[in-house]
Amino acid sequence: MSDLKEAEHQNTSESSDQGEFLEENAPGESENPMLIASDSYENLNYEILDGTSTAQRQTPNTESNETSTGEESNNEEQTETANDVAKKKQEIVPVEEDHDDVNSEHWRSQSKHIFILSEAGKPIYSRHGSEDKLVTIMGVMQALVSFVGDAKDSLRCMIAGDHKFVFLVRDHLLLVGVSSGMDSTHQILLQLTYVYNQVISVLTQSTLCKIFKQRRNYDLRRMLSGAEKFFDNLINLMDSEPGLLLGAVRCLPLDGSVREIIAQSIVQHAKIKDLVFGLIITNNQLIALVRIKKYYLHPMDLHLIMNLVNASESFKTAESWTPLCLPKFDSSGFLQAHISYLDDSCNTCLLLLTVDRESFFTLSDCKSKIKERLLKYNALRAISDSLQKTAYGIQQCGINDLRHFLYKSKSTAQYTSPELEAPYVTQKEKDRLFGLYKYLHHRIHTSGRPLKILFHVGPYETLLGWVTQGFELYAVFGPLVTKTSAIHAVNKLLRWIKREEDRLFILNSVTF
Amino acid sequence: MSIGEQNMKSLEAKVVVLGSQGVGKTSVVIRYVGGMFSKAVSPTIGASFFTYKLNLDSYRVKLQVWDTAGQERFRSMAPMYYRKANAAMLLYDITCTDSFYDVKDWVKELKKNVDTPIVMCLLGNKSDLDSGRKVPIEDAEEYAKSIGALFYEVSALKNTGIEDAFLHVAKELIKLYETNPEAGFHVPEQNTSSDIFGSNEPMKLQETNEPVQKQKECGC
User: Fold this and answer.
1) Rounded CA gap, A216 and A172, in Å?
2) Cα–Cα dist A176/A134, whole Å
């Protein structure tokens, strides 16, 4: 496993093969995007102020022999302290009462934990187990963070055995991610940022700050009751949906003409004062988005919207009218959302986001008219057809030995990828594939040593990652593919995506 | 449609359903509007909107029912939903004393914030769970009387009392309308100030919106 052959091309030498595709002409590129283009980790700039990670040499498949390999450049002292405490913690644990979740084998064996606690150490959320029974361990986390904080430093990460512990402190909240999987510390930090944004989406940042300013030891679970499923769903989504890792959204494949009809239906019937965004989504995929000219939607906010719709059955019973905060759009206030399904089978969901709290009935009328027009032009049928047949298989691309890929168009913040096929059909294999993508993504985006191209030969597959101004491409081949043939294949793939770009991407941003 | 309906008067009324988390607001509404009961009702987000039409005496009554979320975080949003309501269904769970006390808070809040006449109806849900009863029927009756509210014990599961309660409310609405047609029924133009929202100011769109700047910075 540890015996890996790697070739890394840095910006210096690009062979003529690779130059073949003009970068200005990246598939799925648009001069008129509707989403805010986001680089991977862009969202983390806030948290990571200085150049943190030194180039990390270890490969994912090596047995972890590192106890204090500086994943972050934080001084070793810190990590050692952390490890000491972790050890002590393990010694203490058995003494504690039996019904603590920490002692359950099931709880310990989970590959990823996410915790939210207040600055004062009060448990707010735990992905696994009941946070009530995790008071002690959350106390330890809080102690670790404040211990390091006392030294005017901040605890970002510690590594103990094959577990990574990542800490994020934001607005009186302490978020902790613990993973024994393939996630890099940056990737865990990104996930914690998503979870934090989910809190904001429910409460707004102003409310959150106000609550804790008034009462430092407030039990935030009161305010978040009923929202736990949003966290659960979001964290599960991050384990399976590459869009959150890439900072990009997947679109439902549709003919350009159908998409145009759908967008125009929204424009025609929902051109209402103070309506900021009108969008139609299905099953974590975007169908259409119409916006006010001045405003763009951030993919992170769109993921939270999708999560809201996915995680709640409530919208299926009737039209809903609910406050919703989009942290990237404006973390201090609520937009008002009119949410309804357009079809009886509750697959296609329309969201109209406004700043006008009095416009429910106006928007309800808009919804009826939009639905009518979509029915008239058979657009709802086209949507359900596209949903029913799988998006596309890898063999449609007609490239030998290419097993799977993720392609992100940077300018539009959208990505496309084929259905998962054999051998990636069992959950274990799916997870392993996603782990490979995480590894590839991590290596390419390592802040100390970002790469343009990475060719990686693993025991079961060969990986090729390629990042340019216009796109990010992560491709998975069979194990015996040579570098030259992989590069040829990728160029062929880019041409295929270019041909299909109208169907796979939303290239035109429609405004009211 | 019979010919007689031509002469009927129309009345549109806004009904808000309030109460703590888990007392069965959505179940009661769905039972009434949809005639169904589902064991797995998902917690309401914000508020769901239903309409129900019925003919009563010489009126075609259209009830606009706002089924609100009971969770704490939506508490501050409630004024948006009960504003201009003509009737309030106040739900508690007969097996949960706290939910009954919460109703009293709702009543205080309504009295403070709603200045138009409003029909109130106290509903003790889950009457099928009589063995686990914590709120005596007499207490609830007495309280309803003291605030001038109608009172029913209902069960969404067994479908008892719900139809009667809504019908009674509709009758009261008609009575209210006949004695006081100006009592805020069916106002097509809604342009009142939003000052009663208190601390939760509606968001204002700003000229300088961050995303636009970022878009420029990106330049790709």
Assistant:
1) 8
2) 13
Q: Which residues of A touch B69 (CB under 8 A)?
A: 226, 322
Instruction: Count the neighbouring beta carbons within 10 Å of the beta carbon of residue B77.
Output: 20
Residues of B in contact with A328 (CB under 8 A): 211
- Inform me whether the C-beta atom of residue A226 falls under 8 Å from chain B C-beta atoms: yes
**CATH of A5-32+392-504 among 2.30.30, 3.30.2010, 3.30.30, 3.30.450:** 3.30.450
Nearest-neighbour CA in chain A from B206: distance (Å):
10
Does residue B120 contact residue B47 with C-beta atoms inside 8 Å?
Answer: no
Task: Tell me the mean pLDDT in the region A435-464.
Answer: 92
- Chain B: residue whose CA lies nearest to A413: B220
Asked whether this chain's domains A61-240 and A249-389 adopt the same fold, the reply is yes
- Checking ipTM against 0.85, whether it exceeds it is no
In chain B, the number of structural domains is 1
CATH classification (class only), A61-240: alpha beta
Q: What is the CATH number of the domain that holds B176?
A: 3.40.50.300
User: Which of 2.40.340.10, 3.30.450.30, 3.90.1150.10, 3.90.650.10 is the CATH number of A249-389?
Assistant: 3.30.450.30
| Mean pLDDT score of chain B | 84
Q: CA–CA distance from A311 to each of A26, B42, B159 (Å)?
A: 34, 10, 29
Contact B47 A358 (CB under 8 A): no
Q: Kindly tell me if the per-residue pLDDT of B164 is higher than 90.
A: yes
Pair of tokens at residue A412: 């539009």
Lookup: tokens for A413: 């913040």
Between residues A85 and B86, the one the model is more confident about = B86
Q: How confident is the model at residue A98 (pLDDT cuts 50, 70, 90)?
A: low
Flag whether pLDDT at A437 surpasses 50.
yes
Closest partner residue to A357 (CB to CB) among B69, B71, B80 is B80
Q: What is the pLDDT of residues B14-66, one digit of tens each?
A: 999 999 999 999 999 999 999 999 888 889 999 999 999 999 988 999 999 99
Query: What range does the domain containing B122 cover?
Result: 3-218
Query: Per the CB < 8 Å rule, is B215 touching A36?
Result: yes
Q: Nearest CA of chain A to the CA of B208: how many Å?
A: 9
CA-nearest residue to A292 within chain B is B205
CA atoms within 13 A on the CB side of A267: 16
> Which residues on adjacent β-strands are paired with residue B35?
none
The 3-class secondary structure across A84-125, one letter per residue, is HHHHHHHHHHHHCCCCCHHHCHHHHCCCEEEEEEECCCCEEE
Mean pLDDT, rounded, for A46-71: 36
Domain spans of chain A, in order of start:
5-32+392-504, 61-240, 249-389
- pLDDT value at position A498? 95
Residues 423-482 of A with CB under 8 A from B: 469-470
- Among residues A228, A122, A250, A110, the alpha carbon closest in space to that of A177 is found at A110
Q: Is B73 in contact with A223 (Cβ distance < 8 A)?
A: yes
Minimum-distance CB partner of A36 among B30, B200, B214: B214
Q: Which of A316, A320, A471 to mutate to test the interface with B (most CBs of B within 10 A)?
A: A320
- Touching B: A residues 58-87, CB under 8 Å: none
Of all residues in chain A, the one with the smallest CA distance to B51 is: A318
What is the Cα–Cα distance from A43 to A154, expressed in whole angstroms?
19
Report whether B149 contacts B110 (CB < 8 A): no
Number of H helices, E strands in chain A: 16, 18
